[in-house]
Amino acid sequence: MYRPVLILAGLAACLPLPCQPPPWWTREPLRIVHLLTDFEPLNATDPARAAALKIEWGFNSEHLGVMHHRRGLDDEGFYFTTRLAARQNEDYMKRYLPEARKRGLRVMIYFNVHWFNREFAARHPDWVQITEAGKPLEGIYQTGTSLCVNSPWREWVFQLLRDLCAYPIDGIFFDGPVFYAETCYCRHCREKYRRLYGGEMPSKRERRGRGFATLLEFQARSLADFLHEARLVIKAANPQIAFYMNGGVRGGNWATGRFNRVLVPEQDLLGSEGGFIYGDLTRTSLWKPGLTARLLETQAPDKPRVIFAAAAHKPWTFSILPAPELKLLYADSIANGANVWLAFSRFEADLPEIEAIKAMNRLVERHGRYYLNTRSEARVALVWSDVTASFYTGAEAQLIDVDRVPARSEVGNLEGEFNGLAEALARSHTPFDVIDDASLESARPDRYALIVLPNVACMSSGTAERLRRYVEAGGHLLATFETSLYDETGVRRPDFALADVFGVHDAGRIVGPKRWDFIQPAQGAPELLSHLRRRLFPATTYHLRVRPAGGRAVLYFTRTMAGPYDGIPEASEDPALVWHAAGRGRVVYVAGDLGNSIQNLHIAEHLELVASVVRQLAPSPVRLENAPGSVEVVLRSQEGGRRWILHLVNFTGEMTRPIQRIVPLSNVIVELDREAPVRSVRALVSGQALRFRFGAGRLRATVPHLSEYEALVIE
Fold first, then answer.
1. CATH number for domain 380-617, candidates 3.30.160.270, 3.40.50.720, 3.40.50.880, 3.60.60.10
2. Per-residue b or e along 379-398, where b marks 16 or more CB atoms closer than 10 Å to that residue's CB
3. In whole angstroms, what is the distance from residue 104 CA to residue 97 CA?
4. Which residues 6+ apart lie within 8 Å of 662 measured at CB?
5. pLDDT tens digits, one per residue of 81-120
6. What pLDDT band is residue 525 in, cutting at 50, 70 and 90?
7. What CATH number is given for 5-23+71-267 in this structure?
């Protein structure tokens, strides 16, 4: 029986394969295309022309759809030979694969295992996912349903895998499988659950406690069991066939069961939809692809990571984004150590925007060795907490499904808190990693000078103890709002697990919304606040009432005003920021929802507050002149640190999104602290060797021109 902690701590393991040469998917950066032909008969496309176009666009591999989706997958749209076909179509794959192989294009088969049409499902009612109310699941992409990995449907999938692996393919990609927020309570799941745990399945509506933790464990392990058996089928046919799935998102994976830490041992790569951007783009983080790439690196440091990027402005599948947006999606992925997958349709194939994709592909093709086997040199880590996303019920704002708009709760919005603090770090030109709960539980947090905890409300006692020891040994923390106030199953504690580290006690009340209220410094505020020159600046929207207990309150909220013109605000006794020396480390605790306020309001002082904390506790080794905060800085290395690669991603565009034109920057000065002598600095995009000065452990170089992206190779 699996222990609940294994879901989110990622202790699942798999047996290593026998010693063999490195697999093909690790030898060069992957430039993967998915030309969306899944919605039309494949035999309308000439195989030679299709393969040649993908090479012309600069891709070296692809996800090939050979199953036609009619409002979801069924058994009538197979364009390969299988005895499971209800209708025999042309064997397009037999014609296509030789054309791809002769051009050097690696072919991975796209297999959608989460979307099936209603007619097919009606013929197999025992395979369909069932809601907690006992009804068949409906409405997947509005037209279909989804089938259950614990049902006999799995054998249908495994037979299709055997038939696909009879062809000389290079990989298989699963889109899915997933559960849903209201599923699955089919008889197969109920029977398996009783067999494993000896009781009835708990409800998904009560998102806290040991029962819910056990349910999440069960669903994650059900997906892992399915992947494990699929992997055995594939590798028995050919160990050199790559296998992976559309992995968990940086969001509420409680709904789907896609916990990457559990599922990655069964995969050869790890991928996630970090490059799918939806709806009102002004509400979407500019840095979404890079943030996702950093999290995937934490979850699978020894495997290739892939950022799935849609060329479309979702949910409009056939509406391509402007060229600068496409370049930025691509650049932010490769800058952060990930491979790129791009999807577009034949309607976009001849548009001028495709030239942007071709240019980025050619860049990586020319300089591929600088994008392989790199590691982050960041000294700051921002935590994304899957545990909090699963169990924290202070908000319903966590992303559940990329095609469903999440409810936006104001209080404790985890997505907003994370994105706001990520923005503050990025705009201060601070290189940073994204780590998760398992990193805090079992990895070495001491490689970071500063760990940022954006409302990591749900935290195990073990994680709290690791952070306590980290601070005692000299590490620093920046934490906000309800961090550590709940245990790892979402049950509220009487006080913070890190109360002694923060130097405060919880006073048991959330205050807000503060619509027009203020924060003011205490008398004799420390150097930390030297850049905050105003006596009053806007309050965060919500804050937790706390009492100092060993920590020093250096900022206070003012008393709630009846209206924006309710006189001069008066000081309250509610600390806004507490500074605490704990052991050899320093801790900054912010009682308000600082990140969420940055995300929604972009108050200058809030951004500066984060930048000031970083300058004090973990100063960046990189400094830029003549560059706005919209230039992202990513610092990575190769060869044990002998070569550094500084990536500059320029998001400076119009004052809205989508960005249709990037404002190019001139003479950007880069200063970099580095002990080892520097013998050359080369810019990959421009192809120039840059003039530089080096002395006293500091490099100074000038980048003459920066459009969307540049990478400096520092030898």
1. 3.40.50.880
2. bbbbbbbbbbbbbbbbbbbb
3. 10
4. 324, 327, 650, 652, 653, 707, 708
5. 999 999 999 999 999 999 999 999 999 999 999 999 999 9
6. low
7. 3.20.20.80
Residue 476's alpha-carbon distances to 132, 367, 420, 421, 431, in angstroms, are: 44, 37, 20, 16, 16
The residue behind tokens 């052991």 is 583
Mean pLDDT to the nearest integer, 140-166: 97
Q: Beta strand 665-673 with 698-706: parallel, antiparallel or unpaired?
A: antiparallel
What is the Cα–Cα distance from 546 to 566, expressed in whole angstroms?
A: 25
- Judged by DSSP in three states, 42 sits in helix
Burial of residue 662, with CB atoms counted within 10 A of its CB: 0-12 exposed, 13-18 middle, 19 or more buried: buried
Question: Which amino acid is present at 404?
Answer: R
The CA distance from 605 to 610, in Å, is 9
- CA 293, 295, 301, 304 dihedral sign is negative
Residues 483-494 have pLDDT tens digits of 999 999 999 999
Q: Is the dihedral of CA 163, 169, 172, 175 positive or negative?
A: negative
How many Å apart are CA 641 and CA 178, to the nearest integer? 40
Structure-token pair, residue 519: 């924060």
CATH number of 622-714: 2.60.40.1180
**What global pTM score does this model have?**
0.94
Nearest CA-CA partner of 150 in 257, 36, 27:
257
How far lies 569's CA from each of 271, 557, 564, 592, in Å?
50, 10, 10, 18
Angle between helices 604-617 and 594-601 (to 10 degrees): 130
Q: Which of 610, 533, 546 is nearest to 574 (CA)?
A: 546
CB atoms under 10 Å from CB of 347, counted, come to: 13
Which residues are bridge partners to 342 per DSSP? 33, 309
* Cross-strand bridge partners of residue 708: none
pLDDT, tens digit, 9 for 90 and up, residues 216-259: 999 999 999 999 999 999 999 999 999 999 999 998 899 999 99
Q: How far is CA 656 from CA 311, 417, 601, in A?
A: 18, 21, 15
Q: Which residue type, as a one-letter code, is found at position 485?
A: L
Instruction: Report domain extents, the chain.
Output: 5-23+71-267, 380-617, 622-714
